[in-house]
Design goal:
Blueprint (H helix, E strand, L loop, with lengths): L10 H9 L6 H14 L9 H13 L4 E5 L5 H8 L6 E6 L2 H14 L5 E5 L2 H6 L7 E6 L6 H8 L3 E10 L15 H14 L4 E6 L5 E6 L1
Parallel strand pairs: 1-2, 1-4, 2-3, 4-5
Antiparallel strand pairs: 5-7, 6-7
Helix pairs in contact: 2-5, 3-4, 4-5
């Protein structure tokens, strides 16, 4: 596995943390290796193993049956979420890259979850807006282009059940959210997102120091 995505955990402490939870099995480990081999430095976009385990556990804990993921990359997070769903559960995956998502497909098959996953290639916001505006999802994961986070949130919220969870990745952005000199588009977008959802009366919000920061939004 690659080193920690967390900017405040040492590699040694990260290894200890992973090994004292449910560690990645053979399929997840080999998918992580394939991601490193096929994408090189871009492999840091993959969720950390402890985050994947947390999302699988969370989906199971809330009894999620229908899920959606915005930003699939090579499919590690999708595999984890899909494993947290029942046999007749569904996971809608939205991504723009055939090349990246194709890395994960054989591993979804090996894990026995491919039949639960509906992968749609194209702009995620278009995919979401084409869905009926009615409750469809129990859990959602946003991990795509940061300037569109608020758009994804607004498109998802009416489609989430009451008590449903939206998980949002990279909300600490390697600590750049606290650096006044960081004024690039992505950092500014994440700051704006964090500030907006904290004050949104439609959701309850908690930000957790998992990996590069993970926000949980519970629809009221």
């Amino acid at each position: 596995m690659a080193g920690p995505k967390s900017f405040f955990l040492s590699p040694e402490l990260h290894d200890y943390l992973v090994q004292h939870g449910t560690p990645p099995d053979e399929v997840l480990s080999e998918l992580a290796e394939a991601t490193q081999r096929e994408t090189g430095g871009m492999s840091m976009m993959q969720v950390a193993p402890e985050q994947g385990a947390f999302m699988q556990l969370l989906a199971q804990a809330i009894g999620a049956k229908h899920a959606v993921e915005i930003g699939t990359f090579t499919g590690y997070s999708a595999l984890c979420i899909a494993r947290g769903l029942p046999e007749d559960g569904t996971l809608l995956c939205c991504d723009t890259s055939e090349a990246w998502t194709s890395v994960g497909k054989p591993f979804w098959e090996r894990a026995g979850v491919a039949k639960r996953i509906d992968l749609r290639i194209g702009p995620a916001i278009d995919t979401l807006r084409e869905l009926p505006e009615q409750v469809q999802f129990d859990i959602a994961f946003i991990d795509a282009d940061k300037p569109s986070y608020l758009d994804y949130f607004e498109a998802l919220l009416p489609r989430m059940r009451s008590g449903g969870l939206i998980l949002v990745d990279n909300v600490l952005w390697s600590g750049n959210v606290l650096k006044p000199e960081a004024i690039d588009e992505h950092t500014v977008a994440i700051r704006e997102f964090n500030d907006r959802v904290r004050e949104d009366p439609r959701v309850s919000c908690v930000m957790l120091p998992i990996s590069d920061g993970l926000t949980l939004l519970l629809k009221r």
